[in-house]
Amino acid sequence: MSDNLRRLGRAEVTLMHSPEGDRIICKRGASPVEVAFYRDYSMVLNDAGIYVPRCLNLDEAAGRLELEHIPDALPELEVYRDEKVIRQLARLHEFPPLPNTPTHLHTWSLNDTESALRALAMDAETERYFYRAQAQSAVLFEHHHLISGDTNPGNWGVRRNGQRVLFDWERFSLGCAAIDLAPMIPGMGNADTIGATCRHYRCYRATVAQGELELRVVLAKSWIVVEVVNILQRCAHPDTERYLTWYRQTLPGWAKEMRHLM
C-alpha cells in the first residue's frame, strides 16, 4: 500500500484505438516532465534494452501522449525478484542523462515529515524513527543517476516477446538507485525481502556495499510513506483514511525492525 503513487496522479488515462485499429494508451494532462521523458528518452532507452512504452504521438502544449499499449501485467508480488526487471533497472541507473531534459525534483524536508506525522498520529518512538530517517535522507538525492521514481509493481507490463516494460514516468528524476528498488518490495518489506532485493541488484551493479544499499532502501521506504501521506492530504483522496489506518497498524512494528540499520 505504501507504494501506490500511481493511483494518486492527476493525468487521465484511456484505452483507445489508432486510425489503423491498434489499441493505444492516450494520456491527457501528463506533466511536463513525463512529456519530455517520452520526447527525449523513449526511443533511446528502448534501443539500449531499457524498455518503456513507445511514444506514438505527443502534444507538449496540451500534455497529451499516445503510447504503446502493454496489455499484460507482471504478477505484482513477483516484480521485486524478477531478474529481467532488476537487470533493466541497473541499466537505467547507468544510462548517461541527456543534458536538457527536465526531471522531477525529489526532496524530503523536516516540514514534510512533521506534516505526515501529524496526520498519522503515531506513538513517540515511531515518530522518532521517522525524524532520524529524514535526518539521514540526503544520500537519496545527492546522486545523479537516472531513476524512474515510481517503479511500484503496478507500473510493469510484459510485451509478447517477454520484454519487461516500465511505464508512468511523471516522477522521472536523478537520484539514488534505492528510490527505484524500494517501491517494488511488497508492503513495507522486511529485513529478508530488502536484503534479498539488494543482493539481487548488486549482481548487476555493485557500486555500493550491501549494508549501505539496504540502509538506503529503508530510507527510501520511509520517505515514500511521507510522500504518500502528504499527497493524500493535499488532494483529499477518498482512500485517505484507509491508507492512514494501514500505516498506523504497520509502521510501529516495521520501524522497530528497521532501527538496527539506522
What's the CATH H-level homologous superfamily of the largest domain? Aminoglycoside phosphotransferase (APH), C-terminal lobe
CATH architecture annotation name of the largest domain: Alpha-Beta Complex
Strand content: 5-15%
Poorly predicted spans: 1-6
Q: For the terminal residues, how far apart are their CA atoms? A: 23 Å
Describe the sheet with the most strands.
Answer: 4 strands, antiparallel
- Name the average pLDDT: 94
How are the secondary structure elements laid out?
Elements: E1 12-17, E2 23-28, H1 32-40, H2 42-47, E3 55-59, E4 64-68, E5 72-73, H3 83-94, H4 110-120, H5 124-135, H6 138-141, E6 145-147, E7 156-158, E8 164-166, E9 173-175, H7 178-181, H8 191-202, H9 210-235, H10 240-258
Antiparallel strand pairs: 1-2, 2-4, 3-4, 5-7, 6-9, 7-8
Helix pairs in contact: 4-5, 4-9, 5-10, 8-9, 9-10
Which properties best describe this structure?
44% helix, single chain, three-stranded antiparallel β-sheet, Aminoglycoside_PTrfase, alpha+beta, globular, 262 residues, Aminoglycoside phosphotransferase domain-containing protein, disordered N terminus, Phosphorylase Kinase, domain 1, Kinase-like_dom_sf, Aminoglycoside 3'-phosphotransferase, Chain: A, domain 2
Account of the 3D structure:
- Mean pLDDT is 94; it is low at 1-6.
- Helix 4 (110-120) packs antiparallel against helix 5 (124-135) and helix 8 (191-202) crosses helix 9.
- The strands form three sheets. Strands 1-2-4-3 form a four-stranded antiparallel beta sheet, covered by helices on one side. A three-stranded antiparallel beta sheet has the order 5-7-8, with helices on one face. A two-stranded antiparallel ribbon has the order 6-9.
- The longest helix has 26 residues, at 210-235.
- Helix content is 44%, strand content 14%.
- It contains ten helices and nine strands.
- With 262 residues, the protein is an alpha+beta fold.
- It has two domains: 10-69, 2-Layer Sandwich (Phosphorylase Kinase, domain 1); 70-261, Aminoglycoside phosphotransferase (APH), C-terminal lobe (Aminoglycoside 3'-phosphotransferase, Chain: A, domain 2, Alpha-Beta Complex).
